[in-house]
Amino acid sequence: AEDQIEFIEYLAEIYQIDQNNINFKLEDANGGYPDRILKFAIDESHRDRSFAWFDEDFEPANLLSQEARQKLAEYWKIEEKNMKDFLICPLRDLQNKYNPSNKKPVIIISQPVCSESIIIQALGEKIPESCKVYNPNKVERDKQVKGLKDKLKKIIGKNVKLDFYRKNLNKEILEERRKSIPALNLLITMIT
Q1: In this structure, is the dihedral angle defined by the CA atoms of residues 109, 110, 112 and 114, taken in order, positive or negative?
Q2: Is 16 helix (H, G, I), strand (E, B) or coil?
Q3: Distance between CA atoms of 110 and 183, rounded to whole angstroms?
Q4: Phi, psi values for residue 122, rounded to 5°
Q5: Are 78 and 86 a contacting pair, CB within 8 Å?
Q6: Whether the Cβ atoms of residue 13 and residue 19 lie closer than 8 Å to each other
Q7: Where are the beta strands (DSSP E) in the chain?
Q8: For the whole model, what pTM was predicted?
Q9: Under DSSP, is residue 112 helix (H, G, I), strand (E, B) or coil?
Q10: For 161, how many CA atoms within 13 A lie in the half-sphere containing its CB?
Q11: What distance in Å separates the CA atoms of residue 47 and residue 28, rounded to the nearest whole number?
Q12: How far is CA 13 from CA 22, 74, 78, in A?
């Protein structure tokens, strides 16, 4: 969660949301379960934009509950004929499959594996081979998360993250990279 927060704070800074009349409210779920994270986003659906940012590694251990999916289906206006599939669709596929028009709340999934992968890619670095395809096996998944966190730490080194981002990741670079990183594109869209 710390990497997500610092990165989104940097995006808010670089896209000058405070100067563009955007009232941004960040609700830190602090490693919370998917239902809790989604509830924060649903509770803020009265705003112009509302989104929940999940890591792909939530599943299969922490599934979005049927109750939360039902609530999401109401907001997204999922037709009854699609409900059976909607209720079993993997979290990582929900947004693209059932909400391409970005109705509130939008779901952003860090792929592959976790938020560090988006940050690594945004910084122009490659995802380690062992992390390119999410492995739902707990032991392997934990290795992937650790590998991505270690890679990001290695890239940033002893620098303060925000200072490192300011020095190595300007708006022009972000605009170019968002074209090839769907989750980054959606994240920037939601805060601008």
Answers
A1: negative
A2: coil
A3: 6
A4: -60, -35
A5: yes
A6: no
A7: 51-55, 106-110
A8: 0.88
A9: coil
A10: 17
A11: 17
A12: 12, 33, 35
What number is the average pLDDT over the span 39-56?
90
Q: Is residue 124 helix, strand or coil?
A: coil
C-alpha span between 113 and 118 (Å, rounded): 9
Neighbours of 55 (CB within 10 A): 27
Tokens representing 104 are 């509130």
Q: Region 166-183: what's the mean pLDDT?
A: 95
Please tell me what DSSP assigns to residue 88.
H
CA distance 48 to 95: 18
The DSSP element (H or E) to which 85 belongs, if any, is helix 83-88
Hey, what are 6's tokens? 């610092």
pLDDT tens for each residue of 158-171: 999 999 999 999 99
Buried b (16+ CB within 10 A) or exposed e, 106-139: bbbbbbbbbbbbbbbbbbeeebeeebeebbeeee
CA-based R_g, the chain, Å: 17
DSSP conformation class of 103: P
